[in-house]
Amino acid sequence: MLPAGGREADPDPSEGGESMTTKEAPLRDPETPMRATFLELFFDLGFVFAFLQLSHALAEHLQWSGAFHALVVLMALWRVWLVTIWITNRLDPDRLVLQLLVLVALLASLALATALPHTFTQDGVIFACVYVAIQVGRPLFLLFLLGGSRAKGPAVRALWSSGVAVVPWIAGGFAHGVARSGLWALGVAVEYGVFALNLPLPWAGRTGPWEPPTSAEHLAERYRQLFIIALGELILASGKTFNDGRSHPTQMAAFAVSVVMTALFWRVYIFRAGEELPAAFKVASTPARLGLGPIYVHLVMVAGIVVTAVGDQLFIAQPFGRTPLAWVLVILGGPVIFLAGRTGFAYVVFAKIFWHCLAAAAVLAAAIPLALVAPPLVAAVIATVVLLAVAIADAAREWSNPGEPRPPVTG
Q: pTM score, two decimals?
């Protein structure tokens, strides 16, 4: 998607030409250990605010249209983050010019998050213009920076996918109501479609998501860090709601349930697929293709965390009383979405389906009628118990199969 880490030979001086070699291009050295830098972690902090804004916006518009809007915005934010991690994976983050590029992306993310609550009402133009500027501006800048290097191919593809989506994004910013929703959904679909299908371009070829990362360990670490960022947003949303309430004993109990649920999300994620993702990259028969799977399964899992944050705000503010259907759908639906993503994540890493995660999601779906006639806190307890059962099943599977390969070849 963005500049590849492959090395190319220096051109013969006798041939002349102005092209920049990869030696001159600011590429990361694949021979050196690569971990996430403090700048990248600083960039991630902007997404704590973005996810918090997104969960608040969904809580205020808890209906199907609000859920659709939240999905479109989440996918747009995900693209901003995804392009950034591929930049830092391919290019040397110690270069000042790359550091400035990441800081610009952080400022754009904060601007998008600030406009987010009113994105589909009055701030559509601001959101669309900022999004287009960062998504088109970065590949344009990289093309200038990389000159004639063959490493610029993925930047061309990134510019193509974002450039084609400029029209629906800008047009949607000036449209209203259903028209804006439809145009922006089209823009997101175009960007993800070009990225996923990896259609060849005459001047860039197939240089999209199938390229292996410069450092699989770095890429895996960045996915795990963003998941932790999402959990941080969940804690902030729950803590703020509890702090704003009357802090009755029932609200204290509800807050405690939300904390336990957050811990279980972390446990289910990290054990063992989250732990083994770097190893899966290393042993995959086609590590380039493995790079696509984590993109989508992490998007699904983060979506589940955002929805759960909405549910936490609701049952902490009102632990007892009537539970509307919309409340039940977010309190139970958030964990269901997460478990669906976690099932896909396990398949990406281990090349097998962990059926107990799907069974747990089915149990939560079957519990909807019970939750409708029970207080909101009861629905939250049901979700927590089911997540606990998944964590116990994972641990039991590990204890009963201590010699199981970790992980098998995938891809």
A: 0.88
